[in-house]
Structures are given as C-alpha cells and as structure tokens.
Design brief:
The complex is a heterotrimer of chains A (about 375), B (about 290) and C (about 350).
Chain A (H helix, E strand, L loop, with lengths): L1 H19 L10 E8 L6 H20 L7 E8 L4 H14 L3 E4 L3 H14 L2 E4 L5 H7 L3 E3 L4 H15 L5 E7 L3 H14 L5 E8 L8 H9 L4 E4 L3 H13 L5 E4 L21 E4 L8 H14 L5 H20 L7 H12 L4 E3 L2 E5 L5 E2 L3 E6 L2 E4 L1
Parallel strand pairs in A: 1-2, 1-3, 3-4, 4-5, 6-7, 6-8, 8-9, 9-10
Antiparallel strand pairs in A: 10-14, 11-12, 12-13, 14-15
Helix pairs in contact in A: 2-11, 3-4, 4-5, 6-7, 11-12
Chain B lengths: L1 H30 L6 H17 L5 H24 L9 H22 L15 E3 L4 E3 L1 H23 L1 H11 L1 H6 L4 H26 L9 H14 L4 H22 L4 H15 L14
Antiparallel strand pairs in B: 1-2
Helix pairs in contact in B: 1-5, 1-8, 1-9, 1-10, 2-3, 2-4, 2-8, 2-9, 3-8, 5-6, 5-8, 6-8, 9-10, 9-11, 10-11
Chain C lengths: L1 H34 L5 H26 L7 H18 L7 H27 L4 H19 L3 E5 L2 E5 L13 E5 L4 E2 L7 H19 L2 H11 L1 H6 L4 H24 L4 E2 L6 H14 L4 H17 L7 H17 L1 H22 L1
Antiparallel strand pairs in C: 1-2, 1-3, 4-5
Helix pairs in contact in C: 1-6, 2-6, 2-9, 2-10, 2-11, 3-4, 3-5, 3-9, 4-9, 6-9, 7-9, 10-11
The chains are: A alpha/beta (about 375), B mainly alpha (about 290), C mainly alpha (about 350).
C-alpha cells in the first residue's frame, strides 16, 4: 500500500524538478522586466496586496503613456507570505523570469534577507515600505527605500509633539514589540523625547500573538494620566485600541504614524472613534490635489478598497524607477547588473514628485521627503 | 478599581475563549480528534455576520442567526467531506493533518472572496454600557452579553446532553462507538450533529469575538482558536464545565499577566500555567482519569 | 528462527542503504545540473531549506513514528538550534575567520543547545500521554518563541550586555554590536551553508536515526510504543528510553535550525511558530508515520509544491490546501486504500511483496 504513495510522490517530485529546470529565455520584444515581492497571502497580506496592486496600476499607466525610454514595462508580482525564506524563493523565481530590477519587498524582515541577495547579485531594488535602516545596510548600496526610515518617523513625531503641542506634558507609548517597524519608531521616539519638554510616563507593548485585547494596556495608560498616547503601529490594531479606549471613556490625544493611515478606509469602522486622531504621514487618501484624487478614484474602481500609504508608496516606486531609468538612459537589453549600476548612479541625482511628496535620495539609499501632520475631523483627514 | 476592571475584561475575553472551547471539547469528546479548523469556522461566522449587517443591512439578530446557519452547514460539510473518511484511518494523526488542510483552505477562500483588508465590526450589542462606582468603572454591554451568552450556552448544552435522546446518544458514542452502534444509535449522524452544534457555537463565538475586538481578517480565528484549544485542555478536554472554567481562567490569566507582569510574556505565562496544571493533574481540571488496562 | 532474523536484518540494512543511495543520487543529479547550467535559480535557492526540512522531518519521525508520541512543538527546538548557532557565528565573526571551523562549531552548538532544552522539556513532558503530551509540547514551542523575542543581547568592548526591555537599555558604547535584537531576531548571519554541507548533514542524520532504530535501544523504544505496560514489565526503563528518543530528536532539529539559519541573513523567532511545527508533522504523516524515506520525500515534495504552484498566482495557497486534503484522503482513508488495492493492486503486487 505504502508503495503507491511513494511511487506517486516520486513521480510528482520528478515532475516538479522537470518544471524547475532553467528554460533559456526566448527572445521577445524588448521590455523592462520589473519584479515585485510582498505578502499576498498570510496575516500581512493587506500590505503586500495594497503595494503591489498599485505598482501594477502605475505600470499600466506608464505603458499606456509610451513606456520608459520608449520601451514597455513588464511587471511580475510574487507572494512571500511575510517570510524571509519564501521571499528568497520568490526572488529566485523572479530571477528565472529575467527580472532586471525589483520593487520590494514590502515588509521589513523578508526585505533584509532579499537585500543580501540583491547585493550579492548586484540587482537593484527599491522597497516601497520596508523602513528599517537594516534594509539599506543589508543592501549595501543596492537597495533604496521610498518610505521614511523608522528613525526619521520616531524623531519627527517627538519633535512635532514637543514643538507644536506645548500643553502636552505626559505622554504614553503603546507599540508592537514583535514588529520591526513599530519598535524602530518607538526607540527613536523615546530617544528624542529626552530632549523635548514632555515626559514619557508609560510604555506599553503588545505582540502579534496577543493583538486582540488591549484593555490592560489602555488601563495602564489611563492610570498613568497620559494626555497623549503615541501609537506607532498599523491601523488594524489601532482600530481596536480606539474602540476599547472609547468604551473605557479614555480620551487622550491619539498620535499615530504613517501606518495609521487607512483607518478611515476600514469597512464598517465607526469613524467617530477616530475623531481627533493625529498622524504624521506623507500621504492621505483624502488630500485634494489632482494626482491623489485621480489615483484614489482609479484604485477604488479597480480594487474596491481605499488606497493606503502602502499603495501610494508602491505607485511612487514605479515613477521613481522611471525617472531614474530615464536619467540613466537605460535600455532593456542591458543586463540586470548594468541596470543596477546605472540606477545606483542615477538615484542620487533625481528628484521625483509623487503622491507622497517630493523625494530625493542620499548616498545611504534613504529618501528625504516631508511628512505632513494631519488630524481626523468629521471622518476625514484635515491638514493640521 | 483597576483590579476589578482587569477582572471584568478577563472574564469577558475568557467567555469568548470558553464558547470556542466548548466547540473543541464536544468534537473531541465524540470524534477523538483535534479539530484545528475550528478557529477558522469562527472567522467564517464573523464574515457571514459582517456581510449580512454591512451589505444587506439586516438587524444584528438576523445577522447572528444567518451566521449560525452558515457555520452549521459548513461544519457538517467539513465533517462529511474531509473528516468522516478518515475517522477509521490507521492513525488518528491523519485527520489532524486534514483539519490543518481545511484550516488553510478556509483562510484562503475567504482571502480570495473578501480580500485581505481588515473589516471592522459594529458591535451586535447596542445596549448602553454599565457604569459603576460613579463612572470610574465601565463595564461594556458587549462584555455583559458575552458572559451571559456563555452561561446560557453552557446550561443549555448540559441539559441537552443529559436530558435529551440525541444528547444521550452523544454520550454513548463518546464512551464506546462500537457498543453505541449495537444499541441502534446512528453513529455517523450523531457525529455530524456534534459538528453542527460545535460549528453553530463557533458562529456565536465569532460574532461575539468580533464585537468585542472589531478587526476581522481571514486570519482572525487562528490565534483565539489555539488559545481556546489550550483552554479546553486546561479544563479537561471532553468536559463541558471544564471548557467553560478553562476558558474563563485563560482569559483572566492572560489579562492579569499583561497588567501585572509583562505584556510581551503574557502568552508564555498562560502556557506555563497550563503546563504546570497538566503536570499536577495530567488530564486537566475536570478531565476523567481513564484507567489503563493491561 | 535465526535464519529469519538474519533475513530481516539484511532487509533493513538494504532498506537503509537505499535511503543513503537516494540522497547521494539526488546530490549527484543536482551537481550535474549545476555544472551544465541547467539548474534554475529557484531550485538552487531551495536546496538548503529542503535539506533542513528533511532533517527536521526525519528527527520528528523519531518522536512520532518510532517513539509514538505526538509532538506539536518541534519548531521550538529548531528555533533554539537556529538562534544558538547564529548567535555564535555572528559574535565569532572576527574571532574565528576560518569558515569551516566556525560553521562546524556553530552546528555543534546548535545541536547541543537544542538537545539540552530537549532534556529539560522532556523530563516533565514525557510523564504525560497522548493529546495532553501534544498540547504541552505545543505550549513549550510557543514559550520558546515568546521568550526568544524578548531578549536583546549586544556585545561591545566591555563584554556582553543583556536586556529584556529594548535595544537602548543595552547601553552599548560606540562600535558596539547588537547580536540578538528582540523580535527582529538576528540579521547578518554569515551565509556559510552550502548544498554539500546540507547533504552531509542529511546523511549524518540518517545514519544516527537509522542506527538508533536498529539498535537494542531502538527496539526498546519501539516496544514501549507498542505496549508500554508489557515493556515496563520486562524491566525496560520507560522514562529513559522515551527521553533518549526525545533528546536525539531535539538535537537533530537543532542541526536543522543551524543549517537553516546559515542560509538566510534574516532570522526571526516568529518563523518557528505553531505552523512550522505542524508543517513538520505533515511531512511525517504524509510520508508515512515511521517511514524515514517517506519523511524525506514528503519534505521535498511539500517544500517545492507551493513554489511550483506560483503560476496560479492568487489561487496558489488555496490549491495547496486542496492538494493537501486530497493527498491525505487518498493516502489514509480506508475506503480509498481499499479501492486502490482493488484497481491498482496488481501493478504494485511485485514491489509490494518485496517492500513489506
């Protein structure tokens, strides 16, 4: 009986190996091949889907407008389930496909692993949202970031509170200690807070495995008499925190970061709970400039969701790559390594104005753009 | 005052665990299998109620009823298609692995249908909150309803099992399948009924879970599922009062651990207490000690 | 009687040799493909993870198949091995520049650390039976994951600093190096693992496990599995043998972890969660409980399957789940087995006779 199992599984294994054999790339019409990696399934799926959907949208737009340097662009998105090992597999799959540059990966932990591979192969990557400084360190010059770095956000938030809100003296921080993004911002926030007029009176944490109930943490912030609570994490958890705090009738000033953007787009969310929430973000879906409006309308029509900053960052990635490829005068017949050299040279020279502001890049592969403070009023973002 | 507030939150969280644990424990008692897809049935229940309330604009009560029907049907389908062929398999591990497969299946089918974005859930409970001690202690109506639901369900289940024929049949099947069959009991039907009840309870748990913690994603069910499973073992798997007590204790310990020891280690503390309890009482708090025969 | 025993011994020996031969043949084929440039990047990247999953599956089979205990926390041991070895490698990066020595020591350290944790957990856990034992191993797996994520360890000129709060509390001086960064784990482990090392470790694992099974101790372990009371009554020390299987298995899982950690530059504790423990169990059950060869094949197939299904894009994980359910039903359901026997039996009659 067992024999059958073995025979079938061996046959399957053989079929798989056969399908994995390298196929020599057929000569086709020249086009830039951009790969994309992010979590499309699994608990982090929302971030990957937002970012990579927007990348696809931007690629379609670019192609419709005549492509880059006169060449069309092909985009291939692969799932990594927010796992470093799967991410490297996705990266290798894309290499077999003939990827010349990468948009990704979307989340930080897998991005560190992929960044090493990029440095190894001399392939250029631009991550829309992996914000830890370890990403650029691991990429050794090959991986650029389009999002703010975590330290920049933490410092900027503390400075903003210190300089613009003199009435605040007691601040509590609640952060996700199992998340690189959240921890990174928290560390810099507390460091900068030392130099500011307010005092951090309470620090509370949660982890990905215990992110359903926040009553104990909220109670602790209440007991500490916090006037402002800093929430450097994503809006999914933030929506629960706001609801539970409301039930406890705890109403401090809530201060979020760019991960908070998107909270108003949560289907079924009672937006009155988010009234008065402040956040520093480079992108707000309700902004009334033409580019944002057109982007939001098209995204909603195509994917049925309000775009978040992940989507905006993904969208901007394509235009940043376009600008750099044009600056370098690159063509699709160049090898991935030559394109990488050209892009590395071009990226520090370009200035791109996208949905998330006007961006330039420094030698450390980090972006420089200005965050905007917005506050939620009557269920909409308003510039503060 | 914080202490009482923590306690109430703990009991409320624990009541959700308890209702999920009841489903685990009933299925285990009868089919002797760990149904790891149970947590995902909860999630499906949440989505069913969400769809009714948001897209069809039904009242919360209708939404809950539809959700119960959806989950009951789903539970029976899963049992018939994926588990029943394996209940007589050479190893009980086979059906455990299939349950994992079903769990992946449910997560991914919901991901494809509803997308990955978080859905927020308006509480199905629309009563005002209870304020005690001059407003310094707030007990939410959702918490009160959750705790009451848990007590009602436990009493109803106990009565059902002890006083009705199908309930007695369940007891008989869980004691000895072969003998039950000889007594004229429809074993497969009884097992299907157990899955139906367990899944119906999962729907209620799903709605209550999402009312208290309103963020619904395709993966919402997995962690509460594992914790409720732990709670069921804590109380003695197969025992209905055990699941109830185990669930509530889990919730209270989790909240107290977060409040007084460490938020980062709260899960480790919960699991550590579970281990200690099992080492002292190897079959859980209310578990039956089965004498091993030579 | 003695003739029969001799025959049986010879059969197991051939069976074991076949397992080594399969691994070596696979290695040879891959090497040929590599040198002729026929190996895709994807397959090349999968080689080392597959080796570590094979080791994990074989080691878990020792507990589940041979010792007959259900463990749902095996990823925890892999995690201990991975973190211990990566920690060693990263902190000794400059002290021991000779890679084979450093990597070799790292593997030994990973195995030893996981083995020690295995003993510590095994002593209380193995008093329990059946599903209660399973849940306690699950609990330990979660505890290991949880505890690793709260530690921050850094090294500077003044030695080792440990904190359980955050990175700043380490108070590292200028030039200090954070080795273990709480939930963000260890990044920048040197990529020392190669396919050759992976295959050698698989062969060593096979050697250890197969020899254990066919030794006096192995037969004692299996007799306890088959009938604990009978085994006890002939004077076998149940705890000792159970602990032996559990510890060896944990140490080998640690080896799998060490190999895994030296292939990825970003290692986080949340990778080694309940799902990975379950995945290891799926390898064992799908491959046939107690069958070493089955574990190897299942580990290869199930690691490659989701990668092969990438062309399905959005439907990939859904199809994976369905394939998993269908494979389980076909391989385990008594009805399916009966049907298979009836229609396919004659094709496999010959081999079946030889095999069983």
């Amino acid at each position: 009986m067992k024999k059958f199992t073995k025979v079938t599984s061996m046959a399957m294994a053989a079929a798989m190996v056969a399908s994995m054999l390298a196929v020599p790339a057929a000569a086709e019409e020249a086009a830039f091949k951009i790969g994309g990696i992010g979590p499309l399934t699994g608990a982090a799926a929302i971030y990957g889907n937002s970012a990579l959907n927007a990348v696809q949208m931007a690629v379609d737009e670019v192609n419709a407008a005549g492509g880059i340097n006169g060449y069309q662009v092909e985009f291939n998105a692969q799932d990594d389930e927010h796992d470093a090992e799967k991410s490297v597999n996705a990266y290798n799959t894309l290499k077999d496909w003939g990827m010349q540059m990468l948009v990704g990966t979307v989340t930080t932990t897998p991005c560190i692993a992929v960044a090493y591979e990029c440095a190894n192969d001399n392939l250029f990557a631009l991550t829309p949202s992996a914000s830890s400084p370890e990403v650029t360190a691991a990429g050794a010059g090959n991986v650029y970031q389009l999002c703010f770095t975590d330290p920049a956000q933490g410092t900027a938030s503390a400075q903003y509170i210190g300089e613009n809100m003199p009435e605040i003296t007691k601040v509590a921080v609640l952060y996700n200690s199992s998340d690189a993004y959240s921890t990174g911002i928290y560390e810099k926030f507390v460091e900068e807070a030392e130099a500011q007029a307010f005092e951090v009176v309470e620090t509370q944490t949660f982890t990905e495995d215990s992110n359903t109930d926040f009553s104990a943490q909220i109670q602790a912030c209440m007991d500490a008499g916090a006037e402002l609570v800093f929430l450097p994490f994503y809006y999914t958890e933030a929506s629960i925190v706001l609801k539970q705090a409301n039930e406890k009738e705890f109403a401090p000033v809530w201060f979020g970061v760019d991960g908070m953007d998107g909270i108003l787009g949560v289907e079924g969310f009672d937006t009155s709970l988010a009234e008065g929430v402040m956040l520093l973000t480079p992108f707000a879906a309700d902004a009334d400039d033409e580019a944002t409006k057109a982007f939001v309308a098209e995204f909603e029509e195509k994917f049925g969701d309000t775009p978040t900053q992940f989507a905006a960052d993904g969208y901007d990635c394509v235009y940043a790559l376009k600008a750099a490829l044009e600056e370098a005068g690159a063509t699709p017949d160049m090898s991935a390594s030559d394109i990488a050299d050209a892009l590395k040279d071009a990226f520090t020279k370009i200035e791109v104005t996208g949905l998330t502001g006007t961006m330039t890049w420094n030698e450390n592969c980090e972006v420089s753009k200005t965050p905007q403070a917005v506050v939620i009023k009557d269920g909409a973002y308003v510039a503060y | 005052m914080s202490f009482i507030s923590y306690l109430v939150n703990g009991i409320s969280l624990g009541s959700v665990y308890a209702i999920i644990a009841l489903g685990y424990t009933m299925v285990y008692g009868i089919a002797k299998m760990l149904n790891f897809a149970h947590g995902d049935v909860i999630m499906v229940g949440g989505y069913a109620a969400f769809t009714m309330m948001m897209s069809m604009n039904t009242s919360p009560l209708v939404a809950v009823l539809v959700s119960i029907v959806v989950c009951t049907v789903l539970g029976v389908l899963i049992e018939t298609i994926a588990y029943r062929p394996l209940l007589e398999a050479a190893s009980s591990l086979a059906v455990l692995i299939t349950a994992i497969g079903v769990s992946y299946f449910l997560q991914n089918i919901v991901l494809l249908t509803f997308g990955s974005s978080t859905k927020s859930f308006q509480s199905v409970v629309t009563l005002p909150n209870l304020k005690l001690a001059g407003g310094s202690l707030v007990i939410t109506s959702t918490a009160i309803v959750t705790i009451l639901a848990c007590i009602v369900i436990m009493i109803a289940l106990t009565l059902f099992i002890n006083k009705t024929k199908p309930g007695q049949a369940m007891l008989a099947v869980s004691e000895d399948k072969g003998a039950a069959q000889l007594m004229g009991i429809n074993v497969n039907g009884t097992i299907a009924l157990t899955f139906a009840i367990g899944s119906g309870l999962a729907a209620i748990a799903g709605v209550l879970l999402c009312s208290a913690y309103p963020a619904l994603t395709p993966y919402t069910g997995s962690m509460p599922g594992i914790k409720a499973f732990t709670a069921a073992v804590f109380g003695g798997i197969g025992s209905i009062p055990g699941a109830m007590v185990g669930g509530i204790l889990m919730g209270v310990i989790e909240i107290f651990a977060k409040a007084y020891i460490s938020t980062q280690l709260s899960d480790a503390i919960v699991f550590l207490i579970l281990i200690i309890v099992l080492l002292v009482k190897p079959t859980g708090l209310f578990g039956k000690n089965i004498q091993e025969k030579v | 009687m003695t003739v029969m025993i001799e025959k049986m011994k010879k059969k197991t020996r051939t069976n074991n040799l076949i397992n080594y031969a399969i691994v070596i043949a696979a290695f040879a084929v891959i090497q040929v493909m590599k040198s002729t440039g026929n190996l895709s990047s994807l397959l090349n990247g999968l080689l080392i993870p597959v080796c570590s999953y094979i080791i994990l599956a074989v080691s878990l089979n020792l507990v589940v198949g041979i010792s007959g205990e259900l463990s749902l926390g095996h990823a925890g041991f892999m995690s201990v091995g991975a973190f211990a070895s990566a920690f060693f490698s990263k902190s000794m990066l400059d002290a021991i520049p000779f890679v084979p020595l450093r990597f070799g020591l790292a593997i030994v350290i990973g195995a030893a650390a996981a083995g020690v944790i295995g003993v510590l957990i095994g002593i209380p856990v193995l008093r329990l039976r059946g599903d209660y034992l399973a849940i306690v191993t699950l609990a330990f797996g979660e505890i290991i994951k949880n505890v690793i994520t709260i530690f921050y360890i850094g090294i500077d000129g003044n030695g080792i600093h440990v904190s359980m709060k955050d990175k700043m509390s380490l108070h590292l001086e200028e030039g200090g190096n954070v080795i273990l960064n709480g939930p963000q784990g260890i990044s920048g482990t040197p990529k020392n693992a190669t396919f050759l090392v992976g295959v050698l470790l698989v062969l060593i694992t096979l050697f250890i496990v197969q020899n254990l099974i066919n030794s006096r101790d192995g037969r004692a372990i299996m007799s306890i599995r088959d009938n604990r009371i009978a085994a006890e009554s002939i004077g076998l020390n149940v705890t000792k043998y159970k602990l032996m299987a559990f510890t060896v298995s944990a140490a080998l899982a640690g080896v799998a972890g060490a190999l895994y950690a030296h292939n990825l530059s970003s290692l986080v504790a949340s990778k080694f969660d309940f799902n990975l423990s379950i995945l290891a169990l799926v390898f064992v059950v799908l491959g046939g409980i107690g069958s070493i060869r089955g574990s190897i094949i299942a580990a290869v197939v199930l690691t490659a399957l989701p990668e092969m299904l990438r062309f399905l894009s959005d439907y990939r994980m859904l199809i994976y789940a369905i394939v998993l359910i269908v494979m389980m039903l076909l391989n385990w359901s008594p009805k399916a087995l009966e049907l298979r026997e009836r229609y396919l039996g004659r094709f496999f009659k010959k081999t079946a006779k030889e095999g069983k």
